Amino acid sequence: MILFVICLCLTIPAMLTIDRWVRPKTDKRFVLHRVSLLITMPSIMYYTTIFMITYRPFFSFGVTVITMITIVIFNNAKYDALQEPLVFSDFALLRQIFTHPALYVSYIGVWNIVLVVAVSLGLVWGAMVYEPPVIARHGATDYFPMAIYLSVVLGLIYAMTRGPLRAPLLGFLYKLGTDMDVRRDVDRLSLVVCLVFYFFLADAPGGKAIKVKKAPPSSMPDVTFPAIVLVQNESFFDVRRIHASLSSDLLANWDRVRADSAYRGRLSVPAWGANTMRTEFAVLTGLPFESLGVHRFNPYLSLARNPTWSLAHQLRSLGYRTVCVHPYPADFFARDKVFPNLGFNEFIDISGFEGAERFGPYVSDKAVSEKILKILSESTEPTFVFAITMENHGSWRADRLDGVVPPEKFAQPPPFGSQEMAVYLHHLANADGMVAHLTRELSAWPGGAVLSMYGDHVPSFPDVFRDVGYEDRRTDYIVWRTGNTKGQTIDTRAENLGRLIIDVALRGENNMGASPVERG
User: What's the average model confidence in pLDDT over 176-199?
Assistant: First the structure.
């Protein structure tokens, strides 16, 4: 067992050294600090587990190192693109790297993935050929030590997540001082410790969604309710704010509709560059990001797997038909399981867009507009449509619009020296066209209509933003109503948008009295 001890001793300094590569980091992070022992404990457990399964110490050491390096590569790639370290809920999305590689591989890096896979396969091959087990197994009884070890480890994990050790563990974790600021925790506690801590805190008390109760019947049967359209436009924001060199006419339709909107302004969203589901959940439920505990990182992972009160439930209680439209597979982010719990009668995914126009790799914003209008025109009852667009989803490869946009229409040189930004601006122009299309068609809608549109997050252009000194994470929103030209500019948070929509919808042309809040 000397080799086991030697490789175990090598594992500890290797983990402490690799931890130095993790981003974000500060100059104050030392190789040895107050949580060094905590950093090494998961690695020791992982190394020991691999050893008990294989009885190959050098292989176990190599697997531990490769696993840690892989986690660091993924973490740093995510931080570079999204300004956020890896969190435990990201591991639940691993299968989406294979089912939807276009959304992930470009951020991680193809060569990083190839390198990790190649080294891992080489390590397995080398161990099988050159490292025999230090303890031979000849019969079933030789596997008893492994079975006992795994039973103890799994039993402890169960006791700490569901059993009698749960409360003491939570007390210890809270005492240590994690505060759900993942960037600060990773720098202070280390990446591995942060991942483990957040995993154990995932089902901690607090941050629970508001459970749905049976809604009372509508108390306003004499009111004609308007059609309501809520558009979450992918990566939308007023990009002109980042630099004066961008044309003031870039979002001409948006400017016109914004000026006529009941509410308009900047929207503080709980995401940057990705993690659409965070903003989506906040807008629909009205729950602040900070109130969700560990669930804030991916509220669709477990929190929204139960019925949760939302804007859709509110409108259903008033007699609305509620429809979600998203031109992408329904199982992405488990929306097919989540959206019924958020109050939607129907969910139209990519299967409902067969033959629809695309602009680049995704269904166009124009096609989504047409689908929204078709749903409304076929409805015999007041209808709420929540549309989640895909056209402007990253990454914005320079060749993404080849054959779609004539080369001469790309500015030379590209804005800020970024061909990716030039591609993004073409998609943004289509979002501007979507606003014009919807408001033109809804202006004469029987019974009136409300349109709200907002951006889920700013796009992931860390280099461009850094070069121009732009650090604002907010997007933009409007709440527009037919026949309503009086408006207010209010900068607000994503969780407040639903209240503004309800206010405008119920204070429309047929009910211009007090707002729902004033009516109590």
Answer: 78
| Residues 40 and 12: beta-carbon distance below 8 Å | yes
Q: Report the candidate in 85, 115, 91 with the shortest Cα–Cα distance to residue 183.
A: 85
CB contact set of 103 (below 8 Å; sequence gap of 6+) = 96, 393
Q: Return the HEC string of 462-508.
A: HHHHHHHCCCCCCEEEEEEECCCCCCEECCEEHHHHHHHHHHHHHCC
Six token digits for residue 303: 């929190």
The segment with the largest mean pLDDT, out of 110-119, 337-346, 410-419, is: 337-346
Between residues 96 and 210, the one the model is more confident about? 96
The secondary structure of residue 209, as a DSSP letter, is P
pLDDT digits (tens, 9 = 90+) for 146-161: 999 999 999 998 898 8
Contact 479, 504 (CB under 8 A): yes
Q: In the 3-class helix/strand/coil scheme, how is 93-127 assigned residue by residue?
A: HHHHHHHCHHHCHHHHCHHHHHHHHHHHHHHHHHH
pTM: 0.82
How far is residue 101's CA from residue 312's CA, in Å, rounded to a whole number?
A: 31
Cα separation of 107 and 109, whole Å?
6
User: Of how many residues is the chain composed?
Assistant: 520
d(CA 391, CA 370) in angstroms, rounded, equals 14
Find where tokens 């809804």 sit: 442
Q: Which amino acid, residue 53?
A: I
Q: Is the pLDDT of residue 27 over 60?
A: no
What's the CA angle centered on 129, arms 126 and 134, to 5 degrees? 95
Whose CA is closest to 461, among 305, 243, 183? Answer: 243
Task: Give the contacts of 195 (CB within 8 A, at least 6 positions apart).
Answer: 71, 86, 87, 88
Q: Find the range with the poorest average confidence among 108-112, 167-171, 289-293.
A: 108-112
Q: Are 16 and 32 in contact (CB under 8 A)?
A: yes
131: which residues sit within 8 A by CB, 6+ positions away?
Answer: 56, 58, 59
pLDDT single digits (tens) 159-176: 988 888 888 887 777 776
Contact 311, 283 (CB under 8 A): yes
Query: Tokens 């000026």 — which residue?
Result: 259
**Which of residues 17 and 314 earns the better pLDDT score?**
314
Rounded CA separation 55/77 (Å): 33
At 516 the pLDDT is 38
pLDDT at 19 over 70: yes
